[in-house]
Design goal:
Length: about 400
């Protein structure tokens, strides 16, 4: 069970400064999750962590800054770098986003050992190609291993579409070898699809729904010849990636996929389907190295930041169009009650009276629902009773 986040900023800072209680032979993996806005990056991060510490809504740009999540499992620590969706300067200005929204994903890539590229397969407008921003990120850091994650596969009625998407998004190449899709592509009993196979398949648990690629299993072969083969394949991948890095912006505009992915996973992050399969894979990829956080740390965010982000996610969810992006949050009270409950009062400032009416709703139903849902999410994060009160005012 993941640890709760402490409610005291002072205690959280103490934990973050505390020397990690790592085992004798620790392992670590830093994971950057990138993708288009609203692809499900924060939802996947929350599922991997086991608690809802990152804000989620159906609107784009719910995540406003890079934040770290920490998964500690036995001798291994996964550091998840949840980043804002990759966007353009024009869209950033439209949604009143900070300049950091443009640079944070790139900064996360610089510190990552592995990158997960998330694609929303339910969006038929964007699913057939990686965005220009994602391709720029991948080509700028070709030395970082990358994994393609197809998300929201449960929303696809026709699972055969996944065959086309896999071919287009990988350019028919995975881990340095050409994919040879088998003709048998049967529907799975679950919402995830049974993935096409290439030959020879990777050894994986029978319940795994991730793509079977052309390279030999990482586990189970220790001969010199297999080691030479793997080294040769990794060399081919690095060489191909370096070649792509030399391509200019015009070349990237004509690209739809990335031929240097090491693995492909298909899952439904919202419902947690196949997330455990991905998590096991990530734990296996960890390399020997010192932990960065104490095992009781779940996120680098302060308790107040988690609260602000959670409330903002709900505001984004319930207000129409661009309205919620102009809301300013001010915390007026953050106290521990006599029975250990957390008492929070937050003021939401809006630019117009019409926005105030929308946020409060008829008979106060909208603001009450936001407070109730945000309070429940915070109880899950802090594992204590949370009494949240929200007030709405027009900016003076």
């Amino acid at each position: 069970h993941p640890p709760p986040v402490v409610t005291s900023k002072k205690e959280q800072n103490r934990l973050l400064r505390h020397r990690p209680d790592q085992p004798q032979n620790p392992k670590v993996l830093r994971i950057a999750i990138i993708g288009a806005p609203n692809a499900g990056k924060s939802t996947l991060s929350n599922q991997l962590l086991g608690r809802k510490v990152f804000p989620v809504s159906k609107k784009v740009h719910t995540t406003r800054c890079k934040a770290q999540g920490v998964v500690t499992c036995e001798d291994t620590q996964l550091i998840i770098l949840d980043t804002p969706g990759l966007t353009s300067p024009f869209k950033a200005k439209r949604h009143k986003l900070d300049k950091a929204m443009l640079t944070d994903p790139w900064d996360s890539m610089k510190h990552a050992d592995l990158v997960l590229v998330l694609v929303d397969v339910s969006d038929h407008w964007t699913r057939n190609s990686l965005s220009k921003e994602v391709l720029q990120c991948l080509s700028q850091f070709p030395q970082i291993p990358s994994v393609l994650v197809l998300n929201k596969v449960d929303l696809l009625k026709n699972k055969f579409i996944l065959l086309e998407l896999v071919t287009e998004l990988t350019k028919g190449m995975v881990d340095g070898k050409k994919l040879e899709m088998s003709s048998a592509f049967k529907h799975s009993s679950s919402s995830s699809a049974k993935c096409p196979r290439a030959s020879p398949p990777v050894n994986r648990p029978p319940e795994s729904h991730c793509l079977q690629e052309t390279h030999q299993a990482r586990e189970g072969s220790s001969s010199d010849s297999s080691s030479d083969t793997r080294a040769s394949e990794s060399g081919l991948v690095a060489e191909a990636a370096q070649g792509l890095k030399r391509h200019g912006p015009r070349d990237l505009e004509n690209m739809k996929g990335w031929p240097c992915f090491q693995e492909i996973f298909m899952l439904a992050a919202l419902h947690g389907e196949e997330v455990d399969t991905l998590k096991r894979y990530l734990l296996m990829q960890a390399k020997p190295g010192p932990w960065e956080f104490h095992s009781e740390v779940l996120t680098s965010q302060s308790p107040q930041e988690i609260c602000d982000n959670t409330i903002r996610g709900k505001v984004l969810e319930y207000l129409p169009l661009e309205v919620p992006y102009g809301v300013v949050q001010v915390t007026e009270m953050w106290e521990e009650g006599p029975s250990g409950e957390l008492l929070i009062v937050q003021k939401l400032l809006v630019p117009r009276k019409s926005h105030m009416a929308m946020l409060i709703g008829r008979e106060g139903k909208v603001i009450s629902r936001i407070a109730q849902e945000a309070g429940c999410d915070l109880m899950n994060v802090f594992l204590c009773d949370v009494h949240l009160k929200l007030k709405v005012e027009v900016k003076s």
